[in-house]
Amino acid sequence: MAPSLSTTLAGLSLESCIFNASGPRSGTDSALSKVATSRAGAILAKSATIEEQTGNPLPRTWQCDGVASMNSEGLPNKGIDYYLAEETITSSKAGTDKPYMLSISGHTLADNVEMLKRMGDNPLIDAVELNLACPNVIGHPIIAYDMEQLEEALSTVSKLKLKKPLGIKMPPFFDGVHFAAAAEVINKYKKSVAYVASINTIGNALVVDVHAEMPAINPKGGFGGISGPAVKYTALANVKKMRELLDPSIDIVGVGGVESGTDVFEMLLCGATAVQIGTKHWIEGPACFDRIAGELEELMLKKGYKSIDEFKGKLKPWSKEGVALSRKAKKAAGETALVSTKAGGGAGAGGSATMSAFCAVLVMIIAVLLADKFDALSLKLGANF
Ligand code: RRO
């Protein structure tokens, strides 16, 4: 039987712990319906502002080396009323009963309050993610890097007594002092914050186009948020640290550079309750949810896990025994890979490779014997070959 990928996030039951990050391919009902009909466990809409907006000037994204991507989209979205509308939500869910989650990223705290009031107790909405980490709004800092603003936002929102679970999307932190400061503020509002999603893109990076001797993207002097595999290690550290510092009642959602079932497994080990996919969804499309869910199942089967709770948050401390175990596992995997490559891969490749090696040795023995016979014959005949 396939292992279960189910999880409970912010009190919601998700069939799979993997779903989309707000951002790529999440701005319209048609894009969201493709997420819904994949193996994603929930549907999360693009961060909304009060009014529809087109975002920053083009070009505003960069994808190149398979290691990192960059964007400075500047919150293009259809406006909060679109994401709240029954028509949008029904169409986005595509006949599934997967949780539908809003994301909001107002230009001001008052905008966020207004959007949360409009959401009210809309029965079609299962949760709301308050984005406190967008790096790309021209003239606005990243809210959650300013502890006073973070506190003000959470204090204001907690007074609204929301009817829906609230998640907050956080920027990456890089130092213990900053982790501790952010966690202290969030813990004060533990009754209002159901989950923390870490991390948003690493803000204000710069990609240089060496041919044109200019930035690779147009807005904000070329500054944008970095995502993709390069940020996974920062994301893992943020998930781990937030899990350690936050009240256990607050779930952690891991996001940042996740591309495979193994990446999801790592996030879960570090304490994530669910994992979002952003850049890979952007590049590969919604089929990534099927592939990644399958890979996670395969890994869990191999390791003998039946549910994610068996390993969630159980990252072990470094040890010499661990090193030996890892070396052994890598060696075993390496040998299998070598054999598979030689035999053309696939199941049973190991058997064919052994057979090929046996045949090769047999051919060599026959050749030596024949050569001996040939020498003897040529000597007999006195011929010179
Ligand atoms: O739209 C964006 O430019 C954007 C947002 Br709202 C965000 O939260 N993170 C990001 O990398 N881009």
UniProtKB/TrEMBL annotation:
On subunit structure and binding partners, the annotation says: Homodimer.
Q: In which pathway does it act?
A: Pyrimidine metabolism; UMP biosynthesis via de novo pathway
Q: Which CDD domains match?
A: DHOD_1A_like
Task: Give all residue intervals belonging to the Dihydroorotate dehydrogenase catalytic domain.
Answer: 5-300
Q: What is catalyzed by this enzyme?
A: (S)-dihydroorotate + fumarate = orotate + succinate
InterPro entries this protein is in?
A: Aldolase_TIM, DHO_dehydrogenase, DHOD_1A, Dihydro_DH_chainA_dom2, Dihydroorotate_DH_cat, Dihydroorotate_DH_CS
Q: What's the top EC group for this one?
A: oxidoreductase
Q: What PROSITE patterns is this protein classified in? A: DHODEHASE_1, DHODEHASE_2
State the PANTHER family in the record: DIHYDROOROTATE DEHYDROGENASE (FUMARATE), DIHYDROOROTATE DEHYDROGENASE (QUINONE), MITOCHONDRIAL-RELATED
Q: Which UniProt keywords apply?
A: Cytoplasm, Flavoprotein, FMN, Membrane, Oxidoreductase, Pyrimidine biosynthesis, Transmembrane, Transmembrane helix
NCBIfam families xrefs:
PRK02506.1
Its EC number(s): 1.3.98.1
Protein name, UniProt field: Dihydroorotate dehydrogenase (fumarate)
Which residues are listed as membrane-spanning?
A: 349-371
Output the superkingdom of the source species. Answer: Eukaryota
Query: Which species is this record about?
Result: Tetraparma gracilis
Q: Does the keyword Ribosomal protein apply?
A: no
Q: Which family is this sequence assigned to?
A: Belongs to the dihydroorotate dehydrogenase family. Type 1 subfamily.
Query: Any idea what job this protein has?
Result: Catalyzes the conversion of dihydroorotate to orotate with fumarate as the electron acceptor.
Tell me the compartments it is located in.
Answer: Cytoplasm
Cofactor names: FMN
